[in-house]
Amino acid sequence: MKKGSKLYSIATMTCPQCQESHMMVANPYRFSMMGEVKNKCEVCGLDFKPEPGFYYGAMYVSYGLGVAIFVTIWASCNWFFDNVGVWTQISLVLIALIGLGPYLYALSKVIWANIFFSYKANATTSR
Fold this sequence. Notes:
By secondary structure, this protein is mainly α. The chain has one domain. It has helices at residues 6-12, 58-80, 86-116. α2 (58-80) packs antiparallel against α3 (86-116).
């Protein structure tokens, strides 16, 4: 992945503007700060919370990620394995969504921020 692309920022969960500093306060699986976004970027000073309720739209992104995981598991069970029961499929989807839940919550916020903020090559020097 090339630095400067939105995919790089999403994959590394870094600031969409400078792509140097991490957006999350802590690991998404640390339950005391699960999915908590920093207030500002330490490198370029970008305000990660430009207005109250900015990350409410990330719910739609999270929903889309959940549907993508459901469809992937369902299609894999039906195409690649014979005689997989409905309850087995439901169990696999639930295990995957519960296990990946904190990561998807944080990832949806990073994707949402990347929709609204763009990369600036000189963001680290303009501060």
